[in-house]
Amino acid sequence: MEIETETMVEKREIINNVMCLLTDPDGTPLGSSMYLPQNAGPQHLNQIVNKLLNNEEKLPYAFYISDEELIAPLETYLQKNKVSVEKALPIVCQPQAIFRIRPVNRCSATISGHAEAVLSVAFSPDGQQLASGSGDTSVRFWDLTTQTPLYTCKGHKNWVLCIAWSPDGKYLVSGSKAGELICWDPQTGKPLGNPLTGHKKWITGISWEPIHLNAPCRRFVSASKDGDARIWDVSLKKCVMCLSGHTLAITCVKWGGDGVIYTGSQDCTIKVWETTQGKLIRELKPNVRGQPEPSVRELLESNGRLLDSNVRGQLEPNVSKLTEPNGLVLPDPNERGLLDILRKGVLDHVEGSVREGRMEALEGRADGRINALERTMDFVRRWVSEEKRGLQFLIHRQKEESGVKHWRTSKIGHGHWVNSLALSTEYVLRTGAFDHTGKQYSSPEEMKKVALERYQAMRGNAPERLVSGSDDFTMFLWEPFVSKHPKTRMTGHQQLVNHVYFSPDGQWVASASFDKSVKLWNGTTGKFVAAFRGHVGPVYQISWSADSRLLLSGSRDSTLKVWDIRTRKLKQDLPGHSDEVFSVDWSPDGEKVASGGKDKVLKLWMG
Question: Full-prediction pTM beyond 0.85?
Fold first, then answer.
């Protein structure tokens, strides 16, 4: 009988074990690589991580390998994915909420009151109050206990487009299509002074200064179609700073946890402002990884698939130009080339024999200047998006010896409007000192202290991250305090991106699009994870459950849908609205969902 030596035992253990490297969500190792038994599952890994981190109270963790949650022993994952075990297997350890939100599955109330479409709904930071803004020019506060209207607030002259609660829950600010803002007292439904005026066009966004930076809450920033952002002081009841620099409308605004303000605009840029003097401190430049931007000639002479170019406008055959009312340059009908124009899903053909010889590529610019570059190509096929925005082009060039080559050109960075911004710390900025325990606070100083602790715990040692979504179908992940260039470009949507939103734990980014889908991305790397399909109309807005396990979406198709992040499947379909759903919000305490839309009613949903 052969006796196992110590060396043989070690070899057998290595064969039955897997070399793993446990990391936090930012990729920082929790310790050295270690051998783990192949039958180790989430429960075993939880014990190891809590021991490594010396957690006095055992915390729950979820474990991810290549963005796939580990819900079975390691050996099951290895067999399923045929993973090589020659190198250490990285396992991301994600802290989980110690509470669990139940998925909403029924409509608990349909509340009438608004005379026009409900354009915005928002729960207070503690989840105990609800407000809505409507096309009927009113703001309404709702009694969540009786599920009836509480206050009807009049004062706006036009549609109420956006509302925002202060992080301490003491104020609600509303902005209208007339350009004025009103600060309301939620306890009485009364305005705190006269409307705040200064913007020349309608309000597109509102964001409050985080309470961990300044308590009690006093300042907020508003963004407007007029191209300016303004900082207001509710105590002084006036504008204290005007942030000017964008050349077109500002579409979205966020006040970050580091004290700076981010604005996204129709001029395709994102600007970063300091808030003591209102100075521009950085413009986030769309130059991926800091590489030089190629010229049009370099694009045409490249032999590969082109991405991230600096092309502005369109590439066209060399023709006498005919300009449409929308400014698009079309070829002369007599030109012997082929141009396909895609408009609202209808493909029109301008055909002729494909000419062999010299063609010119034209670079069209917004100011009308045209730079011509000669190039030989067989034909150009041009694609124009359904919304006449986010122009993209596909160039085909045929060679007898190599078949057809394809070049796809797109401007580095956003090629059209920036529609939405999201911060990785957004949930703790919104809720301030309030968490799932429902604890109340006796002073602003106490709230500030707790809010700072929550913010620091959420951020850890990693920088605050920003995601932008655009009309050009793309998204970018930024670390604004690390670099003015994006960390990564996120592509996959087939139409404009309406809304982007980080999960409360910062692990995921969700995006809603006119292409009828919701997509899920890794919040640290920007890597695509999953697509949620089920809506039959554009998706307007999304909202997360407080535990980051569920995602809510509202659509033009009149439904809400709840998606399960672990299984990547539809959890609950919520029909009930009779028309488009414009706005949705999941209460920070996780108990309720509110939705409003074109049918003029507010709906409350519960589990």
Answer: no
